[in-house]
């Protein structure tokens, strides 16, 4: 069986990772002290003052089985990233942390509209994050490593700035931004509320993914694909609701599930996060197992490394323990992700043939 160290040494691809969900606990402490943000109280009733305890608080608060409660943890990470310096620091550290885990390609998403409280403009937010990414990539390269990182700009689905953020993504697409996304609570905020933004992106030949089928069911997935034209599905866990498995183990796919599989719609699955938010009962019961068996285009992701207390290597290792996956399975997940990246075809192919496949040879 593959060990965690084995997996850390393999090149990996990450498509669904939130910048504001991946801060180092120590960095949260530093930035909170700089800006005067009050962190949550610890067991002693006083604001938490050490990194280990703060990391535990984030994991415990996120481990509630509620997406709404899970999202509340972001109030602290967003509050401390309202300046150019803070955004550049967390972006640089994000790249360094991913590279240390063996990630060779990553698309990291965040909502620029949530970082304007100290007077930054949307363009200044994107520029600060890109400066951090560039610094992180340069540091990794100088140390003999390899990583490619792109931004995904997210609009909050309960707000009304999606057109503005879509235009921002197009303006920056040749300067480090790979695409667009919408995120936030699904219930009551269907993707069709942002149809103008998605139609604009399609006219501009731009890429976008949509959080769908995590806390809400098949209608959210159907709208994301058939009304909005999403290239990928963020999570997409509830597509399993359109699959019936009889007593003999034979699976019957409904019309939507068949469409998703037939057209190779990538599913950005995040096992640990899905268990934390109640989208899956456990890793062993995660729909990823059945969807992988049926050969949907499954990819494995971290979602929020701070809240989940996880890395992509640990996500893979949890699947190895739960489903007995081997090297061939992990290569399949990784190639799936690289094929699905919002990166030019020749660049994807080079990473698959020159970096990923050689490392996964037995």
UniProtKB/TrEMBL annotation:
Annotated cofactor note: Binds 1 zinc ion per subunit.
Residue sites binding substrate per the record: 18, 20, 184
Pfam families the UniProt entry points to: A_deaminase
Keywords, sorted A to Z: Hydrolase, Metal-binding, Nucleotide metabolism, Zinc
Chain positions recorded as Zn(2+) binding sites: 16, 18, 211, 303
A Gene Ontology term for the protein's cellular component: cytosol
Major enzyme class: hydrolase
InterPro entries: A_deaminase (IPR028893), A_deaminase_dom (IPR001365), Ado/ade_deaminase (IPR006330), Metal_Hydrolase (IPR032466)
Active-site residues annotated for this sequence: 214
Keyword tRNA-binding: no
Gene Ontology MF term list: 2'-deoxyadenosine deaminase activity; adenosine deaminase activity; zinc ion binding
Domain Adenosine deaminase intervals: 11-357
Gene3D superfamilies listed in its UniProt record: Metal-dependent hydrolases (3.20.20.140)
Classification via NCBIfam families: aden_deam, PRK09358.1-2
Family, as annotated: Belongs to the metallo-dependent hydrolases superfamily. Adenosine and AMP deaminases family. Adenosine deaminase subfamily.
Protein name listed in UniProt: Adenosine deaminase
């Amino acid at each position: 069986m593959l060990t965690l160290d084995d997996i850390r040494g393999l090149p990996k691809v990450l498509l669904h990772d939130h910048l504001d969900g991946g801060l180092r606990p120590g960095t949260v402490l530093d930035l909170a002290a700089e800006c005067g943000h009050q962190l949550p109280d610890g067991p002693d009733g006083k604001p938490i003052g050490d990194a280990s305890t703060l990391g535990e608080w984030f994991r415990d608060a996120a481990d509630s089985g509620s997406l709404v409660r899970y999202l509340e943890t972001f109030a602290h990470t967003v509050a401390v990233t309202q300046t150019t310096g803070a955004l550049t620091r967390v972006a640089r550290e994000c790249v360094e942390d991913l590279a240390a885990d063996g990630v060779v390609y990553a698309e990291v998403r965040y909502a620029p509209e949530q970082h304007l409280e100290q007077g930054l403009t949307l363009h200044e937010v994107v520029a600060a994050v890109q400066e951090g990414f560039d610094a992180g990539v340069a540091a990794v390269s100088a140390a003999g490593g390899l990583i490619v990182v792109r931004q995904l700009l997210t609009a909050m689905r309960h707000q009304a700035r999606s057109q503005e953020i879509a235009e921002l993504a197009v303006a920056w697409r040749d300067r480090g931004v790979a695409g667009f996304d919408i995120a936030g609570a699904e219930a009551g905020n269907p993707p069709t509320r942002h149809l103008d933004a998605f139609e604009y992106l399609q006219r501009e030949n731009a890429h976008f993914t949509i959080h769908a089928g995590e806390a809400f069911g098949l209608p959210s997935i159907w709208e994301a694909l058939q009304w909005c034209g999403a290239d990928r599905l963020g999570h997409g866990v509830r597509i399993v609701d359109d699959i019936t498995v009889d007593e003999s183990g034979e699976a019957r796919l409904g019309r939507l599930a068949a469409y998703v599989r037939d057209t190779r719609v990538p599913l950005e699955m995040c096992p640990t996060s899905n268990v934390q938010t109640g989208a899956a009962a456990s890793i062993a019961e995660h729909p990823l197992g059945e969807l992988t068996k049926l050969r949907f285009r499954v990819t494995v992701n971290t979602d929020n490394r701070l809240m989940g207390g996880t890395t992509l290597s640990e996500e893979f290792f949890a699947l190895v323990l739960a489903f007995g996956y081997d090297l061939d399975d992990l290569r399949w997940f990784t190639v799936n992700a690289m094929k699905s990246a919002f990166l030019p075809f020749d660049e994807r192919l080079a990473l698959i043939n020159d970096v990923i496949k050689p490392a996964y040879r037995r």
